[in-house]
Amino acid sequence: AQRVTQPEKLLSVFKGAPVELKCNYSYSGSPELFWYVQYSRQRLQLLLRHISRESIKGFTADLNKGETSFHLKKPFAQEEDSAMYYCALLTNAGKSTFGDGTTLTVKP
Amino acid sequence: EAGVAQSPRYKIIEKRQSVAFWCNPISGHATLYWYQQILGQGPKLLIQFQNNGVVDDSQLPKDRFSAERLKGVDSTLKIQPAKLEDSAVYLCASSLASGGALETQYFGPGTRLLVL
Fold it and tell me: B48 and A46 in contact by Cβ < 8 A?
């Protein structure tokens, strides 16, 4: 069975500092990986997906199949980046599995 | 466009009672998902519909949970009887077609259930 692990429950950085949210996965097939974000009092929403190789709000994520990781990075964190971040995996059969999330706090 | 709607937003019941949640997806979205999110955990997929057919219900506790999407539009998730461990936020999401990697899942605000 597939599994997504986000080893950090909480992550705190200062404004302007780089930030990296870790995500590791296990899946026997070829996965599609996503990052979702939930800002305070807002709905869960898609931030970015691996297949599009996009940068959203300055965030990027690279799929490393050798290390089975999909870490989310931003070179200069902003206070508005404070939120809960979830890594998710989509199997070949179209089933989604989410990690348990990391709460990011960006301090002024 | 209007987002995914869910009701009620909050529900408090006693164990062994029954409860139902309603979801109206974005208009035209074929795929509908129900997730259970226990405090401190990520969303766990309970059931996935494409139109009015079930695509995946492998993690749905079928002895007490049921869900339907009879006309391929809105959906109802029911718990009967509820247990303490069912306390969670129940999220509904929808996507345009088959739920593939290039599609976006749009989430509703969730229903927060507390079982006493």
Answer: no
**Residue B110 placed within a domain:** no
Looking up residue A69, the CATH number of its domain turns out to be 2.60.40.10
* CATH number assigned to the domain comprising residue B50: 2.60.40.10
- What range defines the domain where residue A10 resides? 3-107
Count of the separate structural domains present in chain A: 1
pLDDT digits (tens, 9 = 90+) for B8-26: 999 999 999 999 999 999 9
What's the confidence (pLDDT) of residue B2? 77
Identity of the residue in A46, A52, A100 whose CB atom sits nearest the CB atom of B105: A46
Q: Give the number of domains in chain B.
A: 1
Q: What is the pLDDT of residue A74?
A: 96
Q: What is the pLDDT of residues A51-104, one digit of tens each?
A: 777 888 999 998 998 999 999 999 999 999 999 999 999 988 888 999 999 999
Mutate: best of B54, B56, B96, B112, partner A, most A CBs <10 A: B56
E-state strands within chain B? 5-7, 10-13, 19-24, 31-37, 44-50, 53-56, 65-68, 75-79, 88-95, 106-107, 111-115
